Every structure is written in structure tokens, then in C-alpha cells.
């Protein structure tokens, strides 16, 4: 199997609220929004928002209310950029789970949860490169 991720889908409780958070709050622009789903083109990958119940039905997995153990990361080029993204997310209605701080692996990171509880890490890893097109090179 080829080593890549093409699409990340987040199950959301209220699609309109989720769209407001990502579009008005974070400034993201949808690429496509057919009935019941919205897609955002990101560098090299896409993100979809889909009703949580519809997603559970589609994948035949019940909603059990537990943290899935999955986080999504937005890597940045500087500590100031990390702080700015966390502030923007908080202003848009995110819950800051961990304010940004220097971490044991030599970087700087913090976490927020979007209005549906999806956990995002915002990080600077000085050993990694954020390319001009926004893609990550490890």
C-alpha cells in the first residue's frame, strides 16, 4: 500500500456550526459543499466535515463518546505562528486544552478542541521543514 493520507473526515454534531468555526473563525475556504458534507483543500490532503451520525452510519461504527486517541496537527514555522493559530482558534470558539509551551522533544506546541471536540495540535518542530506550499518535510 502506498504511504499517504488523502482525506481526513471529521464527524460533526452541527454542520452549519462547524462550517462557521472553520470558515468564519479560522478563515478556511471550502472547495466543495454538496448536500450534507463540506470539503476543504489543504496542501496535499483534504479535510471533510460530515454529520457525526451520518458518518457513524456510513462506517458502521457506533458513537461511543470516548476520545478516539487521534489528533490532527497544524505545524507552523515559528513560536509566534503557533501562538497566533491558538489565539485565532480560541477567538473562533475552540477550547484551549493546553496552551503552547516548550516541549520535551525540542519543539513548541499547544492543543485546542474544535466545537465538536476534535483535538488539534499546533506545533513548531525545529527539525522539520514547512515548504513554501505548506507541505511538511520530515
UniProtKB/TrEMBL annotation:
- TM region positions: none
The record's listing under InterPro entries reads:
Glyas_Bleomycin-R_OHBP_Dase, Glyas_Fos-R_dOase_dom, VOC_core
Note the superkingdom of the native organism: Bacteria
Positions of the VOC domain: 4-125
Which protein are we looking at? VOC domain-containing protein
Organism of origin is Mycolicibacterium chubuense (strain NBB4)
Amino acid at each position: 500500500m502506498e504511504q499517504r493520507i488523502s482525506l481526513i473526515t471529521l464527524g460533526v454534531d452541527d454542520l452549519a456550526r462547524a462550517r462557521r468555526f472553520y470558515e468564519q473563525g479560522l478563515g478556511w475556504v471550502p472547495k466543495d459543499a454538496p448536500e450534507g458534507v463540506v470539503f476543504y483543500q489543504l496542501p496535499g490532503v483534504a479535510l471533510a466535515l460530515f454529520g457525526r451520525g451520518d458518518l457513524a452510519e456510513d462506517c458502521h461504527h457506533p458513537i461511543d463518546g470516548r476520545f478516539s486517541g487521534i489528533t490532527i496537527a497544524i505545524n507552523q514555522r515559528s513560536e509566534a505562528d503557533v501562538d497566533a493559530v491558538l489565539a485565532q482558534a480560541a477567538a473562533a470558539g475552540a477550547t484551549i486544552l493546553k496552551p503552547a509551551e516548550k516541549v520535551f522533544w525540542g519543539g513548541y506546541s499547544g492543543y485546542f478542541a474544535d466545537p465538536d471536540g476534535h483535538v488539534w495540535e499546533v506545533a513548531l518542530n525545529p527539525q522539520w521543514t514547512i515548504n513554501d506550499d505548506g507541505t511538511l518535510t520530515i
